[in-house]
Each structure stands twice: as structure tokens, then as C-alpha cells.
Backbone:
């Protein structure tokens, strides 16, 4: 059971480039999330999804887009990368919505130069 | 935006010592979770507390939710090097369909052998 799988683990982008972070879960969870983690700042919610075809903005959505065409996949798209998007990105999923345990991937470290 | 403050930010202790870390907010949460994160990995859930005043024990770890559901503490007895990691608290103040899980900035614990 792989859980939540994120790719790539590391990536360096130039300012203005675009890329997609991939996230797949094999636990049949309806709820999926993207967080970013900056040093000393905790985890900030970027986007979340309550099921296939349904997405919503979190606390820090600017500069990002998501889609949810299947239950398993929740890719995060960065358009026109900026240095402020340098961070570690975590995808997570949960079975329950309110008190549900979040299962996290191993993270994707993105550097924008 | 809800705010969760964790203290101390850094803690370095010797094996066998006891310690307490705190998670405080001015806001009320419907539930609160504690996660532990090791380098290069995503956070892993330790416990969820739901009821004000609730105490949960997980081997040498004791978690308490404040009576007013605004704060929480994590006490570790006889710390071991394997307890080393970043401890994150996360408070849930979701309403309706909007997911609102606020993470603290974390306590970095180092247990020296």
C-alpha cells in the first residue's frame, strides 16, 4: 500500500517557468489537499478537494491551480513561477472530513531562481 | 485567519528527561491534532483530541486538550532519541463545506543520547 505518492521530490525552476506537481493516493480517499511548508511558518493550505470534479481555494491559492478529474489524482500547477513559491509542498488525503487523519506524501522541494 | 502558537520553537534535551510543549490560540477549535514530522518526510498523525479537558495517552506521550478548546499540550516522559522530530499541532475550525485546519509553526525537538 503506497499511500500518498508525490513527484518530483526535488525541482529547480527559473522565474517565469511553469510546472505541475503530481499527487496520487491509493486509499480511495475523497478528500485531498495541497499544503506548502516554509521554515518556521507551519503548513499553509493552498487548495483542497472534497471529491472528483470539486476543488476549492485554501489560505494561499494565488499563483497555483488544481484539478481533480479522478479520485486518485490531485495535481498542483504552478504558473509563472516566482521566488516566493520556493517551498516544500505536501499533498495529503483523508477519509473523514472534519476530524479525519491527514495522510501526507513525502513532499516536493521546489526552488525558484 | 486562526492563529496557533507553539512553544518552545526549539528544544534540546538529554535522553531520559521529561518535557512539555504547548499549542495556544485565542480561537476555539472543534478538534485538535498533533503530528510528528521527521526530516524528508511528511507529518504523521499522533493523536486527535475532540472534547474540552480530554487527556489521551500514547505510550510515553500524554496529550491534553484545554477545557475551553483553545489550547493543548504534549508531555513526553523519559524522552528517547527516537522522539526527535518536528511536532506540529493543527486546530480544526471548519464550518460547512470550507475546510479550515490551522497548523502551528512547530516545536523542533532533539533528544540527545
Residues:
Amino acid at each position: 500500500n503506497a499511500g500518498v505518492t508525490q513527484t518530483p521530490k526535488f525541482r529547480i525552476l527559473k522565474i517565469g517557468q511553469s510546472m505541475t506537481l503530481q499527487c496520487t493516493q491509493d486509499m480511495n480517499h475523497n478528500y485531498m489537499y495541497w499544503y506548502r511548508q516554509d521554515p518556521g511558518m507551519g503548513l499553509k493550505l493552498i487548495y483542497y478537494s472534497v471529491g472528483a470534479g470539486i476543488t476549492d481555494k485554501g489560505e494561499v491559492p494565488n499563483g497555483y491551480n488544481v484539478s481533480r478529474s479522478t479520485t486518485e489524482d490531485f495535481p498542483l500547477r504552478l504558473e509563472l513561477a516566482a521566488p516566493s513559491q520556493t517551498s516544500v509542498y505536501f499533498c495529503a488525503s483523508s477519509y473523514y472530513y472534519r476530524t479525519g487523519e491527514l495522510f501526507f506524501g513525502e513532499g516536493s522541494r521546489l526552488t525558484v531562481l | 485567519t486562526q492563529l496557533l502558537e507553539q512553544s518552545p520553537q526549539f528544544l534540546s534535551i538529554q535522553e531520559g528527561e521529561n518535557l512539555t510543549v504547548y499549542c495556544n490560540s485565542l480561537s476555539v477549535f472543534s478538534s485538535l491534532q498533533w503530528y510528528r514530522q521527521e526530516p524528508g518526510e511528511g507529518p504523521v498523525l499522533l493523536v486527535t483530541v475532540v472534547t474540552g479537558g480530554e487527556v489521551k495517552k500514547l505510550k510515553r506521550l500524554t496529550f491534553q486538550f484545554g477545557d475551553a478548546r483553545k489550547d493543548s499540550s504534549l508531555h513526553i516522559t523519559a524522552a528517547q532519541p527516537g522522539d526527535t522530530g518536528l511536532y506540529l499541532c493543527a486546530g480544526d475550525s471548519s464550518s460547512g463545506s470550507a475546510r479550515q485546519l490551522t497548523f502551528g509553526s512547530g516545536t523542533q525537538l532533539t533528544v540527545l543520547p
